[in-house]
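Hmm, what's this shape?
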Amino acid sequence: MMRETFPLLPLTPVVRSSVAESVYQALRTKLMHGEYLPRQILGIQSLADELGTSTMPVREAFRRLVMQQGLQPMKNGSTRVPEVSAARLDDIRRARVLIEGTVTEWAAARLLKGQIDDLARLAEEISVARRSRAGVPDSLEKNRIFHFTIYESAESPVMLALIESLWLQSGPYLRVTREFMHTDQRPADHLHESAIQAMRAGDFAGARKFIEADISWVFDRLSNTPFDSDIASF
């Protein structure tokens, strides 16, 4: 008797998959950096033209970002950046402090000396980049790498997925805080340094405390922001 055979699924071309992932990562980064206005409509064709690709990978990126709550689908079929409100801000703050603080405490016990050294170098680079307006995009990306280096070390894919979603949802609010980068209200760089010192000392609860304070800095500055004003003010 001949063995029954089953048809093999065709392989997806590597190039296409790479383009789709690259488009998703590009849009994800821009959302996390607060580069889009609250309630801003994102055009599929215009983004495809800007990225030099077809509309298909942009649509796929939109689908993934909607699932992560980084984008919001509209009844007319368009897609926009979520609106901002005081209630939503408070909800995101509570979730971020709770989840990211917990994951930091988990991760601190796992971080190797070399990884902590890398975090220390990143902290210094972030501090330098924040001193000039031109360095803001670089500081935002390095700040993301700093935090996610910690969170990924916790080895919890479930929590990491939640954190990624929360960072995407925080994007519209980050746009407001960019102006603070060049005033005496600039982020307190010592919080990163203090977290690193706590990790080196084996004070995992202390590392959690400093990361929670770092997360709270943005939300503290936004507590009196009139979110019902015209989005152009952002």
